[in-house]
Design brief:
- This protein is an all-alpha fold and about 150 residues long.
- It has one domain.
- Helices cover about 80% and strands about 0% of the residues.
- The chain starts with 5 loop residues before the first helix and ends in a 12-residue tail after the last helix.
Amino acid sequence: MELTGARGRVQQMWAVMAQQAATMAAGAYHRKHPGATPAQLRKVAEATAQYMQESYKAFSIDELMAAIVPIYQRHLTHADVRGIIDFFSSPVGQKYLKQMPAMTAESMDAIQPIIQKHLPEMEAAAEKMSEKVAKPASTGTGSHSQ
């Protein structure tokens, strides 16, 4: 994990996720409030990005890494790990690591329009589920007098 720069990649991924969340929050706000001004949309995006960055501070990267290591241990043998280390130590492995942040950021940018396209149906499904869960359960016992 050290060789692959996993620690830095977690930080980069969180920053990308924060930006994506900000964009999606502004889009959702605009759909609910079509007359929103660009300044209002910017404030929503900035507040969401700020929230995400503050949320990130609650996590210890060491704690996250400690949770991930046993998963790797369950799925990979020592020989697998040696092969992975050999790959990431090679020129092509180093190139992959160097290009990974850009590829991740570009991938997130590429899928954002797809997510935005399907966001209304995802929000509707989430709202429907919330309403279903929030409704008081019917006991079905009725109050029949005898």
